[in-house]
Amino acid sequence: MPKRKRESSLTQIEKRIKEGRGQGYLHDYIPWLLIQDVPSSGRATRIRGWKTNRIHHVHSDLERSYYYILEWSDIVTDIREQFPLLPIEETLSIAEELNIKHPTDPKSTQPIVITTDFMISVGNREIARTIKPSSQLDSHRVIEKFEIERRYWAKRNIDWGIVTEVDIPKILIQNIEWVHKERHNEDVHHLGPYIVSGIEKIVLENLSDAHTSLASATSIADDKLGLEPGTSLAMVRHFIAAKRWKVNMSKPILPSQPLDEIIIENEQLRNSAMGG
C-alpha cells in the first residue's frame, strides 16, 4: 500500500510537470498549485496581471496584498506564484540532512513538492519570497520548512526571504486594489481618445479647486459629456493604474475627498487644465 501511494504521488508530480506547471515566464507560466488544488487560508483570489496578462492564483489575503506590491513596482518584470522546488529528491535530501520531516500530503502522507509563494524577476535577477503571517514565525515546524526552502535557494544563489503583514503598507494596498481592475478599462477604446482626453481635462479643472471632491469632479465630467454615471471615476482609476497620473499612493484615495498632489505626464494638458 505505501508503495502504491508513493507511485501515485510521483505520478501526480509527473502529470503536473507535463502540464507545464511551474514552467515558463510571463503569460506562459502556470503555477504549480492552482486555487482549486489546495484549501486556502483567507480569500483565495484569481487576478489578471498587468505585467503578465495572465490569471494569477493567490491563496490568501496576505499573498494578494504582496502581489499588488509587486504589480505596482516599476522594477519588477515578472511574477511567478507558487513556484515549485524541483526536483523533489533535492528537498527530500535537504530534509534528511537536517533530520526533519519533509512536508507531506495530509491524506496520502506522501511527500509533496514544496513551493515558494513568489519567484520575482527584477531585470535579470531572480528573487524568491515566502509569505507568512508573523504569528506563525514562532512555530518550530514552520521554521523547519523554511530551512529546507532557504537551503534550496542558497544552493542556487537566489535571494530568498520571508514577508509578513508587517512589511505590507496597508494604505498603498488599498489604493492599488481600488485602481487595479481599471488598468485595462475597455472604455479607453470604446470612447476614443477625444472623449478620454475630455474627461481628463474636465476632472483636472475641477480638482484644481482644493474643496472639490473626486466624486464631484468626475460627476461633473459625466454630466458635461453625457456619459453614464461612474464612467469618469472609472477612467480616473485607469489613469492612476496606468500611471498616466502620478498621485501620492501613501495617502488614502477616497472619492469623497479631493485628490491632490497629482502629477500629469502630459505637461501641456496639465497647464491647460490648471489655466496655464
UniProtKB/TrEMBL annotation:
Protein name (record): Transposase
Coiled-coil zones: none
Domain TnsA endonuclease N-terminal: 74-165
Location of the TnsA endonuclease C-terminal domain: 167-249
Pfam families xrefs: Tn7_Tnp_TnsA_C, Tn7_TnsA-like_N
Species annotation: Brevibacillus choshinensis
